[in-house]
Structures are given as C-alpha cells and as structure tokens.
C-alpha cells in the first residue's frame, strides 16, 4: 500500500517575550513603566488626550478596552504589587499556512452547461499552493428544460485517470460554504448522481474529517441501492448541493490522506 499525504506546515509569528514585557504599559515611550504611564492612561480614559500616548501598549489587561483598570495595573506594576500584566500571559496563536504536498494524481473542476459556474474553470488545476479550492454558483433546479444542474471539484488518484482500488478511511481537512457533498466516484455509478458519499457541514475554520465506510450512503431518493465498490474508484468529488433555489457554495481542501491498494 502507498499512502499519499499532504502536510500542513504552520507559520508561527513569534513575539519576543522580553520585548513584549518592556513595551506593554510604556505608553509614553521612555522605555520604563512608571506612575507617569498610569497617570497618562487615566487621563486618556476620562477624555484628556496626552501629548504622547501609545494606545497600542495601553491595554495591559488585554480586555480590548483602555480604561481605569489598565491605569491601576500600571501603578501596581510600578510599586511592585504585580510583576507582569495579564496581557503578557496570552500566547500568540499560530496561523496555519497550507503548503504543497506530494500528490500523484491531479485536481480539477467540472460544471454543467445549464448556466452554473465554477472557479477555477474546467481544465484548470484546482490545486494552488497546496490548497484545492473551488467556488460555485448553481442555477435553480430543475431548469426550465427539466435538467438538474451539477458541478464539482475532483481529485483523480491516478495520474492517467485509470480506475484504482482504495481502502477506507479517507481523511482530509476542509472549510466550506453552502451545502457540499463528498462522494467516491465508482465506475458503476458514474454520472448518475447515485454515488456513495457524505454531506459535509459548512465550516468557516479548517476542520479535519475522517470517513469510514459506515459514514457513507447513497442519496435518500435512490430506490435500489448499489453496493459500494472500492476496487473501481476513479475520483473523489466535492459537489455543491444547493437544492431548488440554487446559489453560491465553495470548498477548500488540504491534508488529504488516501490509502491506495
């Protein structure tokens, strides 16, 4: 078996704690925290604007406000009652930045000819800087001609688009808007809308999900279920399911873990 993995590498903005301790509370910029800083902060609070006052270091309790509590804390710091401010104890939160991984297959998009749109367009690589992304605008269904709109982002595990055999679970990290359904494309159910899949809840933050076979199902309207065949898989798909009203949806995917037999 081969495991294809895309790793997320976090870029962490590190703030020097020594520098932070020197600057926080030093509102007049004299490189020390004294009763003068406390007085200036109290003046600022009551509406008297000091000639020199650095608001960026005045909120010493990290409350989001500059008020008399900050002035009191500065005075306490000056006389030695406290040795650090509440705002100094907060740890900066790393911001994950996805980076490219080693995929053997390829990412892309597809869309109907009934008026729906997808970005990036068909024939364009959907993987940019390690993030597979697609944004959709779906028309209402059915169309006046009785057609049902469709679109999606896909990953073909085989670079030549051949059928492959996989084992579950499959794991990926995603964020999305609108209704997105993840499906496993198998030959016997190709292009008929009956693929086994899972309805992804819309999430604004990166969220990891692991799907076992028991998590997957065919659409509820399928009258005669077809067994899930993991030995003839041609694509993994993320498809908008916006219902009769249509509308916008989007999906971003990183950190795909897929085991090929």
Quick overview:
With 261 residues, the chain is mainly beta.
Structural commentary:
With 261 residues, this protein is mainly beta. It folds into two domains: 17-89, Dockerin domain (Type 1 dockerin domain, Orthogonal Bundle), CATH 1.10.1330.10; 103-260, Galactose-binding lectin (Jelly Rolls, Sandwich). The chain has helices at 17-23, 35-45, 68-79, and strands at 2-5, 8-11, 95-98, 106-111, 117-119, 127-128, 131-138, 151-156, 166-177, 180-186, 196-200, 207-211, 233-240, 247-260. Strand 6 and strand 7 (131-138) form a beta hairpin. The radius of gyration is 27 Å and the shape is elongated.
Main β sheet profile: 7 strands, antiparallel
Structural class: mainly beta
Number of domains: 2
How much β-strand is present in the residues? 25-35%
Low-confidence stretches: 1-21, 90-101
| Helical residue percent band | 10-25%
State the separation between the terminal residues, measured CA to CA: 5 Å
What's the CATH superfamily of the largest domain, by name?
Galactose-binding lectin
The averaged pLDDT comes out at 80
